[in-house]
Design goal:
alpha/beta; Aspartate Aminotransferase, domain 2; seven-stranded mixed sheet; four-stranded antiparallel sheet; 14 helices; 42% helix; 12% strand; binds pyridoxal-5'-phosphate
Amino acid sequence: MGYFGNEHQVSFASRVFPKRGRTEAEVMAHLDEFGGKDVDDNHGHAIVYAMTLMNHLDAARISKVANMNFVKKNMLFKELMVGTERMSLEVKRMVIEILNYPDDARVRFTSGGSESLYCAINTARQWAKVERPRIAEPEIVVPYSIHAAMSKWCRYTGIKIKRVPLGPDFRADVKAIEKAVTANTIFIAGSAPCWPYGLYDNIEALSALAESRGIWMHVDACLGGFLAAFVERAGHKLPVWDFRNPGVRSISADLHKYGFACKPLSSITYRNKEFEKYHAFAPSDWPDGPYNTESMLGSTPAGPIASAWAVMQFLGEEGYVDLAKRCLQVKKRYIEGINAIEGMKCWESDLSPLVFEVPRGMDTFAVMGGLFDRQFYCLPCLQPPLIKIIVDPVTDEVVDGFVGALREVVDLVKKGSITIENLKPYM
Ligand SMILES: Cc1ncc(COP(=O)(O)O)c(C=O)c1O
């Protein structure tokens, strides 16, 4: 099942599992063949975030090698891996230093943004069981634009989720969220920034609301956390989105996005130990005694943590700031190029992604089809129809290639030579 929901049908003419093993050369050649059919790094990392995101520069190579060197290690057995555990604690410390978190903040690794959001809601639920024991039917209240993973977790666990319509500026409508909060509400959240439009919710106002109602407040900075930290150091102003807001109890920030580490790796950080204590659960009602884990996973790969350590040490603050500055230049170049095409309009975005409208009356999905045909991949937003690109520290050629293809495609869609049919083979 792909991102767009279609099931890929493959028919197998013969057994795939061989009776006799193949040679290393054969195996590797076949793997290369699989990989060779994917979008290439250049196009993929520029436009489609989820595929080969930010797979660039020496940092990408070092991140990959570090991952490979630790690929067989399992963080489940930390006691046996004194050195790896030390490395992991250093990464946690660097997360605190980079994101300017309080000294006594507590970082936990997860397998990605989705797991960090699952943990945030779960931790709030465990906290509420102790601190709000009368709540039998817990609910969470979030802006409509918060990441879909929150709905997923609520479906898994039977927690009610209220997605509150956005304000006219496409940010959280804090007054409407306040109205939606009831005696059963355990948790509210905001994005910094949100995936659909790249906009920051008013975290300050949401934090004040959480404080006044005594409920959990989470900031989803999965996408932007590590980019925000460095664009701010480069002098770019952003809203106050973190623990500086006293009502914020947890923040998620993905190392495998703008941290440039290999997937899968994200962080969820609690303001203090007191809040962190509701995160972990070590079941012991089985023959083997307590089963302590970092977060939700059992076996936990050490490779991505090694890749985070390597890339953080290799780039240092100066390296990350340079990449963040490059992201801002790339964004400016995209905006200038796209807005120069008749009828196209980039939305204001606080950070990343960048979204834009196609000319009035034109089919957004036909435009996407034409771009895909030219190997320029992007993602859609449906409400309203928009095209989304990721702000990546790429070269001018990548940006200009995308803008050139877009100009050509828009013209062909106008003439009717490209339609939504062009998109169908990719779905
Ligand atoms: C704001 C935000 N939150 C959460 C997620 C989920 O992250 P992941 O894909 O690592 O599970 C994303 C992914 O793009 C995101 O942009």
